């Protein structure tokens, strides 16, 4: 496969200076994600018109400058506030951009890509000794010599979750396409406070499920392993196959039960398969689900910050790995993540803030994250520059593994999904050969190359 | 012990005395003429027409004498008009507005500095302190090659910057003045630190396909005052060539001169110099008489290079590690003050009104003859000029000149705001300053402008312009989108 040539690294600043003295504080949900960073790769097929090399990159850089004016939190830098917590000082420092070129075309690349190669398309730098000079967002634009472009975005999870990272790219795309942003730039950054009506002195016990989950994650941080080489596979499940999976996940007996959501069905499927791989025998390994809570908390879609909440699924009673039971268990856990539960969790976290080193949220259990709220295919940069594939990574992977459920490119049906699974390399290979998974005939978009 | 006179300067009465004195001395000729004219008129009226006619006949003028006298008068008039230097008009000028993507906020500059000078925190600290006190704003521009980490100052990139700046500003000038490239008779390009082969003037000729008999000049190495030197050269050429025009392009190409070492005295220019350029159209054609914005009145050049200290105060050399940079010595301000004094001594008699010159002469005589302890009289240049454009070389330069010339904050506003908005753009900063004054609508017909520039060597050059016509607020100046925000208050120290 072709080698990548890095051309240059520079800083892109906004077009208008930021008002001095602006600060953003980070919420408790943000502060929990300090150990992680996100990486996205967007692939675009060659547009019709032939361009000079570097021309598209220049145009994208200019439109990014324009767009950054509305995102002072992205161009700011990290500082610790007097209480020792992270906050952002909006000092207008900008975003790092790396430009690269690669031989070949996007189609050829996508045929033979794997995790290691794909991560070359996204630039990331670990936090410096002095975080005030460290950029929290990195963008890499890689032009394919025979046509097409790949945009890699990496960002510190402390500031953004996958939903708002994709919203950032969409804003950039809108600015490139139309010269202005279609959605309003993010204004508020506060999680909703407790509603006054609930401040009942004789209020009974706050809902403990979520709180217990977070407590146990914090306690288990010693049990992470860091040395294994991981591989990521991407499997695309077509619309009828996902429907079939959902039908399998529906209990035969109780026909008045609604069928599980695509996420619940797929998460259940992968939970069962991965548990088998890990040699858990009859038991299921520990699993936590994670989902975007903007709708639940009635937050605007443009809310910029972390709003994904984790919850552990109770696997004690699930003995026979029947998909309906598994899906049902997941469904119950998802419904626990309601507005009151989350607000109670936020309050608990605020009182029990872990100052020194927050746990790695994806450190111990298998994490199944629903990224259906992320709609990356809306990022259309030009009339014929539409994303053909989008990959998402939550790094570093230090625990059992990840299963990320993403939407498919438009036009493949409302229920089709792309699932990105990150596991230790040998397990990933065996997962691709698993019968239960193969019974839903997924297309292997990205496999494990040796 | 001589009696110390009480300070009367704040007294209103003294102000009126001063005004009266100035009016008297400045208009002395008219004031003397009036009684004479009145006397003649009274005499004429007294004599009556018949007496005047008889007086006339008694002079016995015959035809030859009348003819000879008229020829003499015509001859003298012709010689006078022929030997009068041609008036040089500044038709219009254009200043370069860099693209917004080249903007460099303080935080980005400091971050890059930190990333490049990783193991020299003291140098980074030094740069930060300079930047805090520099008087620059958050919207100054650096060329694209300097935005890279690490910077890539290749010759290619330098040529790229030169093309970007010079061609943009020439296009802007063509648009403003309606000048056709083929009509340019004289082309002078000045850029101090970048001098490729073929020269930048050849680059311009190649791009715009100028005539083969064009008189082109390329001035390099002459520092920040090269802009006025080019104007002086253009003026001299326009005396020799009738009915011609001259285009002067002043710029400074930053790309090749970004100092990558860590010698403190050499890091200073990195913090202050920014991207910019200007193109000026000068002409001696009579047809431009009513179209031109300004008329060139004087150009005065002073060179202190004979003094060794002055010669070495801005010196380009290699540091201990072999990296080339421009070394600014500590006594730069003192030398600048000296050079300014020299320049003022020459320009004073040319521009100052008679009242100021008389006062200066009297105090000079007094100091020489009576009492050397008398304070030297600093002539009030505010009476000679309405607007001052001091080269935006740095906050210290502007402060020094404001103190020496006793100027008010409003007089130096153009210089300070140009430094804030565009940084030190070297030879073109004077044109941004005039642009500021025009954009604020303060330039009126008949106003006199004094441009002062300093340069390595050490030189102090001045030019005096007179506004030729009413100037409306321009819509295409680099100040157009931000003039309403100015003037801003620039704090002594900006906290980074």
UniProtKB/TrEMBL annotation, chain A:
<dbReference type="InterPro" id="IPR023213">
    <property type="entry name" value="CAT-like_dom_sf"/>
</dbReference>
<dbReference type="InterPro" id="IPR050317">
    <property type="entry name" value="Plant_Fungal_Acyltransferase"/>
</dbReference>
<feature type="region of interest" description="Disordered">
    <location>
        <begin position="184"/>
        <end position="207"/>
    </location>
</feature>
<comment type="similarity">
    <text>Belongs to the plant acyltransferase family.</text>
</comment>
<dbReference type="Pfam" id="PF02458">
    <property type="entry name" value="Transferase"/>
</dbReference>
<dbReference type="GO" id="GO:0016747">
    <property type="term" value="F:acyltransferase activity, transferring groups other than amino-acyl groups"/>
</dbReference>
<protein>
    <recommendedName>
        <fullName>Protein ECERIFERUM 26-like</fullName>
    </recommendedName>
</protein>
Automatic annotation (TrEMBL), chain B:
<feature type="transmembrane region" description="Helical">
    <location>
        <begin position="63"/>
        <end position="82"/>
    </location>
</feature>
<keyword id="KW-1133">Transmembrane helix</keyword>
<dbReference type="GO" id="GO:0006633">
    <property type="term" value="P:fatty acid biosynthetic process"/>
</dbReference>
<feature type="domain" description="FAE">
    <location>
        <begin position="80"/>
        <end position="368"/>
    </location>
</feature>
<dbReference type="InterPro" id="IPR016039">
    <property type="entry name" value="Thiolase-like"/>
</dbReference>
<feature type="domain" description="Beta-ketoacyl-[acyl-carrier-protein] synthase III C-terminal">
    <location>
        <begin position="386"/>
        <end position="466"/>
    </location>
</feature>
<feature type="active site">
    <location>
        <position position="420"/>
    </location>
</feature>
<protein>
    <recommendedName>
        <fullName>3-ketoacyl-CoA synthase</fullName>
        <ecNumber>2.3.1.-</ecNumber>
    </recommendedName>
</protein>
<feature type="active site">
    <location>
        <position position="424"/>
    </location>
</feature>
<feature type="active site">
    <location>
        <position position="391"/>
    </location>
</feature>
<dbReference type="Pfam" id="PF08541">
    <property type="entry name" value="ACP_syn_III_C"/>
</dbReference>
<dbReference type="InterPro" id="IPR013601">
    <property type="entry name" value="FAE1_typ3_polyketide_synth"/>
</dbReference>
<keyword id="KW-0472">Membrane</keyword>
<dbReference type="GO" id="GO:0016020">
    <property type="term" value="C:membrane"/>
</dbReference>
<comment type="pathway">
    <text>Lipid metabolism; fatty acid biosynthesis.</text>
</comment>
<dbReference type="InterPro" id="IPR013747">
    <property type="entry name" value="ACP_syn_III_C"/>
</dbReference>
<keyword id="KW-0808">Transferase</keyword>
<feature type="transmembrane region" description="Helical">
    <location>
        <begin position="20"/>
        <end position="42"/>
    </location>
</feature>
<feature type="active site">
    <location>
        <position position="224"/>
    </location>
</feature>
<feature type="active site">
    <location>
        <position position="387"/>
    </location>
</feature>
<comment type="similarity">
    <text>Belongs to the thiolase-like superfamily. Chalcone/stilbene synthases family.</text>
</comment>
<dbReference type="Pfam" id="PF08392">
    <property type="entry name" value="FAE1_CUT1_RppA"/>
</dbReference>
């Amino acid at each position: 496969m072709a080698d990548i040539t890095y051309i240059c690294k520079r800083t892109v600043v906004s077009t208008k200076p930021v008002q001095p003295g602006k600060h953003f504080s980070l919420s408790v949900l943000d502060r929990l994600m300090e150990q992680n960073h996100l990486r996205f790769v967007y692939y675009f097929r060659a547009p019709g018109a032939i361009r000079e090399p570097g021309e598209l990159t220049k145009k994208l850089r200019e439109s990014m400058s324009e767009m950054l004016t509305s995102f002072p939190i992205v161009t700011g830098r990290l500082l610790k506030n007097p209480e020792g917590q992270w906050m952002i000082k909006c000092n207008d420092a900008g975003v790092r951009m790396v430009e690269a070129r690669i031989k070949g075309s996007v189609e050829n690349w996508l045929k033979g890509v794997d995790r290691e190669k794909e991560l070359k398309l996204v630039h990331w730098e670990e936090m410096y000794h002095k975080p005030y000079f460290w950029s929290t967002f990195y963008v890499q634009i890689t032009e394919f010599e025979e046509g097409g472009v790949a945009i890699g975005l990496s960002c510190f999870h402390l500031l953004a979750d996958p939903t708002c990272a994709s919203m950032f790219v969409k804003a950039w795309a809108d600015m490139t396409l139309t010269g202005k942003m279609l959605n309003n730039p993010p204004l508020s950054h506060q999680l909703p406070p407790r509603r006054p009506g609930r401040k009942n002195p004789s209020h009974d016990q706050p809902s403990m499920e979520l709180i217990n989950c977070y407590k146990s994650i914090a306690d288990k941080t010693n049990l992470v392993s860091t040395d294994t080489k991981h591989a990521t596979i991407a499997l695309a499940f077509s619309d009828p196959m996902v429907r079939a999976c959902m039908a399998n996940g529906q209990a035969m007996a109780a026909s008045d039960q609604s069928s599980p959501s695509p996420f619940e069905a797929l998460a259940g499927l992968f939970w069962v398969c991965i548990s088998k791989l890990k040699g858990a025998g009859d038991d299921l390994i520990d699993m936590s689900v994670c989902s975007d809570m903007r709708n639940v908390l009635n937050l605007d879609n443009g809310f910029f910050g972390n709003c994904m909440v984790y919850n552990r699924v109770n696997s004690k009673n699930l003995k026979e790995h029947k998909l309906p039971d598994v899906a049902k268990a997941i469904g119950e856990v998802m419904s626990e993540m309601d507005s009151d539960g989350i607000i109670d969790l936020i309050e608990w976290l605020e009182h029990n803030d872990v100052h020194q080193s927050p746990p790695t949220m994806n450190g111990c259990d298998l994490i199944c994250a629903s990224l259906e709220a992320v709609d990356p295919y809306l990022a259309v940069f030009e009339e014929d520059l539409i994303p053909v594939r989008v990959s998402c990574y939550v790094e570093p992977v230090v625990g059992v593994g990840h299963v990320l459920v993403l939407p498919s490119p438009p036009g493949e049906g409302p229920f089709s999904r792309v699932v990105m699974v990150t596991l230790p390399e040998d397990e990933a290979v065996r997962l691709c050969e698993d019968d239960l998974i193969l019974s839903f005939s997924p297309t292997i978009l990205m496999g494990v190359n040796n | 012990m001589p009696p110390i006179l009480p300070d009367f300067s704040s007294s209103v009465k003294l102000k009126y005395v001063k005004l009266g004195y100035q009016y008297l001395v400045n208009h002395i000729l008219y004031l003397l003429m009036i009684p004479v004219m009145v006397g003649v008129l009274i005499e004429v009226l007294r004599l009556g027409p018949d007496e005047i006619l008889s007086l006339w006949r008694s002079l016995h003028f015959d035809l030859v004498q009348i003819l000879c006298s008229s020829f003499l008068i015509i001859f003298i008039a012709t010689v006078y008009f022929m030997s009068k230097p041609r008036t040089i008009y500044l038709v219009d000028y254009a200043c370069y507005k860099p693209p917004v993507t080249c903007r460099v906020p303080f935080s980005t500059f400091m971050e890059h500095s930190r990333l490049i000078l990783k193991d020299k925190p003291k140098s980074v600290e030094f740069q930060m302190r300079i930047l805090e006190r520099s008087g620059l704003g958050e919207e100054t521009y650096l060329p694209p090659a300097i935005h890279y980490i690490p910077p890539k100052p290749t010759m290619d990139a330098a040529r790229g910057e030169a093309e970007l700046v010079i061609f943009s500003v020439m296009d802007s000038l063509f648009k403003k003045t309606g000048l056709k490239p083929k009509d340019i008779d004289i082309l002078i390009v000045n850029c101090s630190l970048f001098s490729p082969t073929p020269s930048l003037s050849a680059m311009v000729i190649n791009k715009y396909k100028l005539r083969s008999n064009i008189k082109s000049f390329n001035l390099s190495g002459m520092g920040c005052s090269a802009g006025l030197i080019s104007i002086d050269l253009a003026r001299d050429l326009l005396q020799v060539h009738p009915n011609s025009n001259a285009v002067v392009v002043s710029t400074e190409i930053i790309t090749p001169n970004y100092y990558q070492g860590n010698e403190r005295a050499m890091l200073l220019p990195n913090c202050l110099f920014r991207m910019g350029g200007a193109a000026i159209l000068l002409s001696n054609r009579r047809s431009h008489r009513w179209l031109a914005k300004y008329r060139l009145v004087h150009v005065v050049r002073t060179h202190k290079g004979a003094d060794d200290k002055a010669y070495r105060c801005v010196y380009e050399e290699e540091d201990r590690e072999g990296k080339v940079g421009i070394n600014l010595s500590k006594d730069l301000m003192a030398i600048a003050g000296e050079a300014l004094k020299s320049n003022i001594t020459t320009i004073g008699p040319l521009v100052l009104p008679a009242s100021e010159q008389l006062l200066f002469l009297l105090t000079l005589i007094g100091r020489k003859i009576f009492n050397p302890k008398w304070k030297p009289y600093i002539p009030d240049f505010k009476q000679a000029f309405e607007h001052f454009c001091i080269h935006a070389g740095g906050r210290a330069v502007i402060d020094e000149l404001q103190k020496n010339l006793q100027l008010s904050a409003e007089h130096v506003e153009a210089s300070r705001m140009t430094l804030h908005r565009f940084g030190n753009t070297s030879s073109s900063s004077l044109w941004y300053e005039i642009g500021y004054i025009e954009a604020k609508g303060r330039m009126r017909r008949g106003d006199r402008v004094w441009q002062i520039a300093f340069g390595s060597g050490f030189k102090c050059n001045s030019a005096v312009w007179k506004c030729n016509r009413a100037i409306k607020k321009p819509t295409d100046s680099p100040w157009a989108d931000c003039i309403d925000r100015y003037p801003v208050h620039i704090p002594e120290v900006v906290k980074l």
